[in-house]
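Changelog note: in this version the structure field was regenerated for every chain. One regenerated record is shown below for reference.
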Amino acid sequence: MKIAFFDSGMGGLSVLHDALKILPQEEFIFYADEDNVPYGTKSREEVLRFVDAAFKFLIEQGVGAIVVACNTATSVAVKEMREKYSLPIIGMEPALKVALDSFPDRKVLVTATAITITGEKILKLIEKLRAENLVELRALPRLVEFAERQEFKSAAVEEYLRGELASYDFEEFSSLVLGCTHFNYFKDTLRKILPPHIKILDGNAGTINELIRRTNLKSARSEKLPSIEFYYSGRRVTDSEELSKLKKFLSRLDEVEAIR
């Protein structure tokens, strides 16, 4: 099956990275809407328009399923896309339930883009889990900018995160949830500044499990290299410099994969 992974930018590569290891026998398209990144600072109407244009393009490429590997696009547009298109559409959900199930009496800090943490979807999830008193939300928009320019580890990244997280008494918390796929690139810096007991969680594994469930795919070992086509806002990526840049993103994800 040809499966599309869609994101506003390079964050969605962190979800594709998981899929490549679990479903190496499938064909993949990765679509980054580089013309319009970041989505987190756009209006809901703009994001809906961008997502719909991407879906039309991906369906023309013959994909059998689309993973919206972007928490902001999921929050804003997945409901509308499912109403409009008939193929399996898998969205992102912050690993909030995992955190609360593991530590039911400790607080959880969910980090995401501003449009995600003010969106109806995350608020409904908190209400569904009856966790209003256990969840705090924090927007970290500059992490998207750092990730897009491949500034993964720097004094500026560390200073930004320390400043944004300084007000929290982490003795009250069990976990920090990465509610934006771009944030996965910074697990090592987060691990450096967070207390050892704080778990760093993302929704990637749950998303791939849902993809497998919705499409009846089977995980399998494969000796062949996975087939991947890369697109920037509908333009096929063939330039060697850009392909090298994408490889660097995936290599970075290898470096931080085991950090929890």
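Spot check on this record: Strands lie at 2-7, 27-32, 65-68, 89-90, 107-112, 135-139, 173-178, 199-202, 227-232, 235-236. The mean pLDDT is 95.
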